Amino acid sequence: MQDSPRQTPYGTAAEWTNSSHRNGVPASPSLERSSTWARSTAQSLRDLGMRAVHDDFYSRYGHPNARAVEAEVAAVEGGAGAVTFASGMSAIHAVFASFAGHGDRVAVARQVYGGVTSLCRHELPRSGVEVDVFDVFEEAEWDRALEAKPRLCWVETPINPTMRLVDLHRLSERCRAAGVPLACDATFAPAPVQSALRSGADLIVHSLTKYYGGHSDVLGGVVVSSHEHCRVIEGFRARTGAILAPDSAWLVQRSLRTHRIRVEEQNRNAARLARDLAETVSPDGVLTAVHHPSLPSHPDHELARAQMPGGFGAVLTLTLGGGYPAAVEAMERLQLVVRAPSLGGVESLVSIPVDSSHVGLDEEGLRLHGIDPGMLRVSVGLEPFESLRSDLFAALGLDA
Ligand code: PLP
User: Strands (DSSP E) along 236-305, which ranges?
Assistant: First the structure.
């Protein structure tokens, strides 16, 4: 029987047969570190340079390991294409820079990652881009922001660290009516938890550093969108140079092989922890709130059931009645959960938002974000559930 031309990120079965791997093919992805590709003739090199032929040429324009990540992330997120970057922030910057230039406006939700707030405050204005900040929970503000004819509308869902959600379906309808592309930072909930594209966003961005990297050992970012948007963003990347490096892309390829089961298990662990911790909540107790969309008490629980069909995310945030000093004390008592910023790795991580992701916000900024100084953010990993539960309960001084 003839081999069917099975398409994989590494080529077709027929290509394997003709390749140099005569006695078998690697079971795990190969790493291609070469920054350039040799050609047998001057003419074939010229064809590549003139873009008459598209193939490996020079790795700033693209290389096999980045392309494999792009193909797979686009497929799982439901996009036509994807473009990878050296970090989440370089992917985010590429989106803004590709849509808006000197004299343009962009609409950016107030409730976004601190790094994006900082980019909008310090870098975009230097390129002549005006930023209209709007409150994502006030629908009247959506209209105000869209009336200003921005080149792009930027939101994040779920939102760090409150795990509040943006109703992408409703917002995307408004953006479409106004002719404004909607971009969403979906880092906190990758596929299969949610697909922001299927919910209506035109572009999504992930920090690959988080769930897609999954092991706290690689920095990266990706934009997933239509072919048309990807072509524009890829052009920006070729000219500015922040492509995901081959070694980093290979680490993400390694992680993609376990992405779904890691994320599903992390989501299950987080929802169980949220439920057990929420049972201890009282107005004068150790915990005054547990923020996780799986909980019926969460303000966006119903929306989460529709928008996050694959789980509710694996980050949960606790508000401690004793405020900031109690958060510091609990953090220091943890034995298993690692004290570090970031999220999405196999190991559980804990941080205090006012000291890490939102350190730049003043009191009013924190209030508008819904961030309390007594919040502890936990990125739930893959440790056995009972070990995690007892570590957190002991650190908080709760009866197990
Ligand atoms: N978006 C969100 C929601 C994040 O939490 C982060 C980093 O923590 C980023 C973007 C930036 O990603 P990176 O650190 O890979 O540049």
Answer: 287-291
